[in-house]
Amino acid sequence: MTETLLMGAMLLAIMLVLLAGGVWIAMTLAIVGWVGQAFFTSTLPGKNLFSAFWESNASWELAALPLFIWMGEILFRTRLSEEMFEGLRPWLNRVPGRLMHTTILGCGVFGSVSGSSAATCATIAKVALPELVKRGYSEKLAIGSLATAGTLGILIPPSITMVVYAVAADASIIRIFLAGFLPGLLLMLLFSGYIGWWSLRYPEQVPPADPPMSFVQKLRQSGNLIPCALLIVFIVWVLVAGWATATECAAFGVLGSLAIAAWGRALNWRNFVDGLMGATRTSCMIMFILAGAAFLTKTMAFTGIPRELAEWVDSLQLSPYALIGALVLVYLVLGTALDGISMIVLTSAVVLPMIQKAGFDLVWFGIFVVLLVEIAEVTPPVGFNLFVLQNMTGKDSNVIAKAAIPFFLCLVLCIALITVFPQIVTVLPDLVMGAER
Question: Is 225:83 a contact under the CB 8 Å cutoff?
């Protein structure tokens, strides 16, 4: 166990040195993976490098990522995003925080469509961040909320991470999907609650409220919101009804955005090309990072670090809630070097029997793990949402992580609440499908 921990510490130190030296994020992940396999295993890293890069990007489901990002680029470059904010402004005018809540609402709605943390974070950041900064809202608060609210894409169904867990745990995918709704709503309320408290605490950093408007005036100003709102409702509807996959919904989103922009005479050849190139650059950046992370994941599997950590926790023979606390620490440590799906796959064989033996519900534990995965998305040095926002804003990932700390604590509070009150997770699937025996 000591040798394994030392190996993990050495790889983490190499990663931190490379990142501090300005090496590209994806290259850093790949280099650390190469070093781990070359010096700490008997495998040939070259073959695994090429297979990891191919397998991580040769995915039909991943095709939704560039399409959703392109949709965000279209909304941003054709002034549709500005019209959406103008339509929302009268309804949020008297709410503490006002338009800052659009980051949470947007990530919640978009997350239910995309099922991807990266796509949700990148798309909503592209639409919301420039508008919020232009209107005088705190950039730091906006970036922090986007980093964490973007993770709603893997908590609000459908979610690839949930599917992976359901397969690993041999649990009902539908039950786990249903179990994610109330925790997702709770997390959105916690995020918005903090934004409201911050706005009351620092009123000078929030733009002043607009003069009161009548209900008819609000409806009239919201007219520009209708086309985009109908598009989002349509995308969610066809997905929930089972008429289209997430990738097909993304294609509908792009087509609908182009149609709305053309109808409003906001689309021209220049912003069409700029939007397409912007989506290409962002998508390539995310896919390159995914490839590097996939190679590092292979290294972790070969070295056995995740399994060693899980087996060490099992050897402690802890009480049920002490076990949960220990697993939180283990997953937080793993989250500094692995993506969420890899965390689940590499530890499930050891962790799930421990959970069942301790008497915890596997559906509840699935949501618990997904929340820990969300925390991993904003945990340096390999917090994926931190990388996405770093490349989109030009700010250092540590600056973004610092801005996300209050929302990070909201995630921790949500984990504590579902642990103390597990009914938050289990009540909806039990109500819809009946209690499991």
Answer: yes
- Distances in whole angstroms, Cα of residue 327 to Cα of each of 168, 313, 365: 17, 8, 11
Tokens matching residue 179: 């179990």
Q: What is the pLDDT of residues 85-137, one digit of tens each?
A: 677 777 777 788 888 888 888 787 777 665 667 777 877 787 788 888 888 88
Helix 269-303 × helix 384-393 angle, to 10°? 150
DSSP letter string, 380-435: SSS-HHHHHHHHHH---HHHHHHHTHHHHHHHHHHHHHHHH-THHHHHHHHHHH--
Does pTM top 0.85 for this prediction?
no
pLDDT in tens, 30-76: 888 888 888 877 776 777 777 777 777 776 666 777 887 787 778 76
401 and 386 Cβ atoms separated by less than 8 Å = yes
The CA distances from residue 340 to 98, 154, 374, 378, in Å, are 32, 10, 8, 11
Q: Which residues of the chain have pLDDT under 50?
A: none
The conformation of residue 211, written as its DSSP 8-state character, comes to P
pLDDT at position 414 is: 93
If one counts every other C-beta atom within 10 angstroms of the C-beta of residue 280, the result is 14
DSSP 244: S
Quote the CA–CA distance of 411 and 433 in Å, as a whole number: 28
3-state helix, strand, coil in the chain (%, to 5): 80, 0, 20
Integer Cα distance of 375 and 343 in angstroms? 12
